[in-house]
Fold this protein.
Amino acid sequence: VWKTADDDRSWIDISHPLDADTPPFPGDLPVELLELDSTDRTIPTGQRHLNCSRFSVSVHCGTHMDAPFHFFAQGQTIDRVAIASCIGPAVLVRISNWPKPGWIESRHFESHRDQIRSARRVIIESGWHRHWKTSDYFTDHPVLEEAAARFLVGHGVVLIGVDFPSVDRPPYPAHDVLLGNGAVIVENLTNLDAIAGDSIELIALPLRLTGRDGSPVRAVARVRSGA
Ligand SMILES: [Zn+2]
């Protein structure tokens, strides 16, 4: 039996599994996993076989973070995103009762205004994560209105996470506002319905990829005690 810290149980994984079946953003290359060696190998070479693999993945595949450099040549690259932006309190805003998934507006955040101002991280649960691996996941997802993006940065938000593949579509008004104001975006979150309440502690750390535009993240959350 492998031991884990007791504390582990309070953390909820809000990342999608990353494997060769992870659907890439349309037009992007699929995830490639290569098994370089395996403990199953029994060739009697006298060498010990280990499990060892290599993978190649778009930095915008699966649960991942966009750095300002994704849209702006002078923007912060993923290795320079402040660790403090990626760890800390977050407000979980649940947007339900869609007539059909559509536009996320400032009004959806208004009742959370004070919480947003103090937590400075916002996670949106639209329920769209339930469409993961279905044919409409990348085409019919909700988007964030430009005014909603302005509302968030106006309240000091440094990280916004969503359970859909992109905060908007071309010409990307929400990406422009969020990344243009130095906030980072986490896309393709999942499992947000497993979290009770709306006040969480979030960890979503990107790899320290030198000078690049994004990175897969392992995003986890737990209910904030005493909040
Ligand atoms: Zn992205």
Summary: The pocket of zinc ion is lined by residues 60, 64, 66, 187, 214 (CB under 6 Å). The longest helix spans residues 146-154.
